[in-house]
Amino acid sequence: MEVHQVRYALAVAEQRSFTAAANLLHVSQSGVSAQVALLERELGVTLFHRTSRGIQITPAGEPVLEQLRRAATELEQVHAVADELNGLLRGTVAVGAVAGLAWPPFFDALQLVHDAHPGLDLTLREGTSALVQEDVAEGRLDLAVVSWPRQPRAGLASWIALNERVTAIVAPDHPWAQRTDIPPAELLDQPVICLTPGTGMRTAYDAMMAAEGLPTPVAWEVTLPTTARALAARGMGVAVLTSSRADPPTDLAHIALLSTHAASALGVVWRDRPRPSAATRAILAALRTHIGVTTEDT
Q1: I want to staple 214 with a disulfide (CB 3.0 to 4.6 A). Which of 10, 149, 161, 209 is the partner?
Q2: Straight-line distance from the first to the last Cα atom of the chain, in angstroms, rounded to the nearest whole number
Q3: Cβ–Cβ under 8 Å, residues 148 and 200
Q4: What are the residues facing 268 on neighbouring strands?
């Protein structure tokens, strides 16, 4: 059994396609198919059913692929230990972030590691806080910068970089622009602009309104905070977003929401079991240096 055969089989299982697996691995589709066939012949187990609709994992293939995943993880740990002993940082570290995060210290941290360790392959994937945390928990990402209203996903180690407030954001000529605060109930009288479900911001808004015993209407449901601010700037409604030093400067008016539940956090999550690789720990250390730590929650 060759290591590359294991990698090919796991890629096919993840992508449910020989072609997609080949594209992911940057090899030919015929090469992937031939090597997986050799692996199946050696193991005496058919791992995949090839059908017109794609690839299906066979019942016998499920436990074999699970064991192959464990073996691949153990092999990665062996390389990580060897690199650490040699003072090297190599391999791939997959970083996640909430979509639209435009916070310079985050990118400064990535640049620091990228420049200091040219042999390290850094990748970045954006998404909603819920999906990004799921990817960290399932091992598809090594760490991520995400937001949460009360606590991050169970089972993940974390620290908080910023404690944020949920605020109403309006155009300078909006009737509320000169107000310093409003009760959340007044949001019911305005078209609310908020992010999509699964984002930390939407979760924080829903949690605040639920705690106040109020419904959570959203007239404009958008993907990015920049879109929400653009709509608010044009008088299309009241954007409900977090307010912190991670936000880009604008001339929009920020109005505090009078609720003890109008809170959210921006922080870092990762898996601490098994122990993160030396490369992942280097990125965590850079993030601590550049974005800081408000409080620990491991």
Answers
A1: 209
A2: 39
A3: yes
A4: 145, 159
Q: Could you tell me the pTM of the whole model?
A: 0.66
Q: Count CB neighbours of 142 within 10 A.
A: 23
Under 8 Å between Cβ of 94 and 123: yes
Torsion of CA 114, 115, 120, 124, to 10 degrees: 10
CATH of 91-161+266-297, one of 3.30.465.10, 1.10.3720.10, 3.40.190.10, 3.40.50.2300: 3.40.190.10
Q: How far is CA 29 from CA 21, 96, 216, 234, 269, in A?
A: 8, 29, 49, 50, 36
The pLDDT of residue 243 is: 82
Neighbours of 37 (CB within 10 A): 14
Where do the CATH 1.10.10.10 domains begin and end in the chain? 3-83
pLDDT tens for 138-157 read: 999 999 999 998 889 999 99
Q: What is the pLDDT of residues 119-143, one digit of tens each?
A: 788 899 999 999 999 999 999 999 9
Cα 115 to Cα 186: distance, rounded to the nearest angstrom = 49
State pLDDT tens for residues 101-124. 888 889 998 998 888 888 788 899
Query: Which CATH number among 3.40.50.1440, 2.130.10.10, 3.40.190.10, 3.30.390.50 corresponds to the domain 163-263?
Result: 3.40.190.10
CA 53 from chain centre, in angstroms, equals 30
Angle at the Cα of 39 (from 37 to 42), degrees rounded to 5? 110
